[in-house]
């Protein structure tokens, strides 16, 4: 069994432990589990995927095949964070892991929390399964920046949006988890394939686990196409 498959089992276990509450109904307890299956097995970046239109069971039945982004378009180094999380010469901060980590500042923050030198050695996440899933669980359960929710809290309703969040159309639910994990690579772009691909897999797992699709919430909760990203990607510097 590949380490990503093992990791899915681990993430499901954490989801069940983290979401069980005597006052919640069965379908509510299943939803964080389903989200982790979606985020851990199917990414918005096509380079991670195995599924295709005529694959057995259809494209939604196939999961994540690789533990890293196979054809990164950039090195994901943001110099805005050069004082706190400076990029190491030669290091590339493309997507790696069960819940892919992108950008130097995310590798830096997660590395600090887990006491791992991920700024100098981002490759640890693709080489060491234990580190990969420590990072995935930490990322799901913790906010990446002060004043922002974790993906878990946004999904289960622990997070209460501020006025600015409401104006930015960020609401508790599945759509905001995409915003937290993927930002403007998926969200704030309208009805795009990258976002719809993730939503389709969420609905697929809802069906597999016997949870009605209505449990996903209305359109404005399920999607993030109209949301403003929590952490907009810095525009590349113009060539001089």
UniProtKB/TrEMBL annotation:
It comes from the Eukaryota. Defense against chitin-containing fungal pathogens. One of its GO terms (biological process) is chitin catabolic process. Residues 1-22 form the signal peptide. Keywords: Carbohydrate metabolism, Chitin degradation, Disulfide bond, Plant defense, Polysaccharide degradation, Signal. Residues 49-214 form the Glycoside hydrolase family 19 catalytic domain. This is Glycoside hydrolase family 19 catalytic domain-containing protein. InterPro entries: Glyco_hydro_19_cat, Lysozyme-like_dom_sf. One of its GO terms (molecular function) is chitinase activity. The keyword Ribonucleoprotein does not apply. PANTHER family: CHITINASE-LIKE PROTEIN 1, CHITINASE-RELATED. The keyword Signal applies. Pfam families: Glyco_hydro_19.
């Amino acid at each position: 069994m590949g380490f990503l498959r093992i990791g899915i089992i681990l993430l499901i276990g954490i989801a069940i432990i983290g979401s069980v509450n005597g006052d919640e109904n069965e379908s509510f307890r299943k939803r964080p589990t389903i989200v982790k299956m979606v985020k851990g097995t199917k990414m918005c970046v096509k380079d991670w995927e195995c599924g295709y239109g005529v694959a057995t069971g259809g494209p939604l039945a196939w999961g994540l095949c690789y533990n890293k982004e196979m054809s990164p378009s950039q090195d994901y180094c943001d110099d805005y964070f050069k004082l706190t999380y400076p990029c190491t010469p030669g290091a590339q901060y493309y997507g790696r892991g069960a819940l892919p980590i992108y950008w130097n500042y995310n590798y830096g923050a997660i590395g600090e929390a887990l006491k791992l030198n991920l700024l100098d050695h981002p490759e640890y996440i693709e080489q060491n399964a234990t580190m990969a899933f420590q990072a995935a669980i930490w990322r799901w359960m913790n906010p990446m920046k002060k004043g922002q929710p974790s993906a878990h809290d946004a999904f289960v309703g622990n997070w209460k949006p501020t006025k600015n969040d409401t104006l930015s159309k960020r609401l508790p639910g599945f759509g905001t988890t995409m915003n937290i994990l993927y930002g403007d690579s998926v969200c704030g772009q309208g009805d795009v394939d990258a976002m719809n691909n993730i939503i389709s897999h969420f609905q697929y797992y809802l069906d597999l686990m016997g949870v009605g699709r209505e449990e996903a919430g209305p359109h404005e909760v399920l999607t993030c196409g109209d949301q403003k990203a929590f952490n907009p990607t810095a525009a590349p510097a113009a060539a001089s």
